[in-house]
Amino acid sequence: GARSRFENGIRISDPESIDLIKMAAFDVAHRVITALSGHRISAVIGNWARARARGVIDGVDFLRTGVVDRLRVGEVIQILDKGTVVIFPCVGHNDIGLPYNLSSEELTISIARALHAAKVFHLGAYPVMSHPDWTIPEDFKNLDGGRIFRVTAKGARELLAMNPNKPNREVLGYSAEACEGGITRVHILDGRQPGVLLKEIFSNLGVGTMVFADDYERIRPMESSDITGVLGIMNPLIEKKVLVRRTREELESIKKDFMVYAMDGVVHGCAALHIHQDACAEIAGVSVDPRYAQLGIGAKLISRLLEKAAAEGMTRVFVLTTQTADWFLAMGFKEASLSDLPASKSTAYNPVRNSRILIKSLSPSCHKISHCKP
Fold first, then answer.
1. Where are the domains of the chain?
2. What is the number of other CB atoms lying within 10 angstroms of the CB of residue 91?
3. Torsion 226-229-231-233 (CA) sign
4. I need a labelling partner for 280 at 20 to 30 A (CA). Which of 9, 51, 99, 209 fits?
5. Full-model pTM
């Protein structure tokens, strides 16, 4: 068979091989349609991507390898609105009909950005990114048994600089670019693993590598200098009886339990994770500046605390709430009773406040939260 040449991880597609590439691309597309048809899901293959030549880079002519020039997004949206799945082969044509081989990863990210997607999943023959196979910075902490389960867009750029000859370089680079362009999270998954998509979605630390926008990294442990800002966010909720009153001294004594969401040094949200016995933890003090509620800060804080709880070996997380039960229920918490609480909390329960008790199980799975806006 024909052998491909690569330059910096990019396939060089010569004119003689482009017909074979087209055959392979459309064969894969038809296989997807066949699989969807078996589940009565409508799908359509289309040529909504316009391409242009990648050209000559550092003296290397990429021949019939192209880049995405533009997308006919309006047509795609109309099809999606009808409940039909759209399938893009990794072949695009220029304005005079000349076909080019497109990177599937680049095409995916171009589509996602054009559709203003919040999340992208790359499913392919991507080996799991792990240390020591990948060189990592000394202070890198996002490891799960050696697997790099999470990295910021900036961190992904650092990994690329430190690992010049790794098989996942192209998809990692496009994932970082996607997050820099407004997509919240990109998941890189080994599609050869059975059930990998469900495992990634419904397990707390996933099974692949998640690249996320730096916005997600604005969540950090609370510092003493944050307390004034935290109180400023909490006080309106305290006055409305949503939160229990806390003093500056109380917050100082439990600051290690709190995480804050800060931008440019200003706190816009906070939440705490209190550890109890019996592998049970409590989420409390969830507060968000209402001027920034549209950013989904509360959901991001809860998601981070759930990950922290799971990493510390907790199997259940509970919350006591008087006015925000619907919000927590939408994030997978379930109604519970006083007897479900650890003894240290059930004995301190205030019947006058009469808070509703909600619990979320972290075993065997814990949802990552991205759809809630409060």
1. 1-115, 117-212, 220-361
2. 24
3. negative
4. 209
5. 0.60
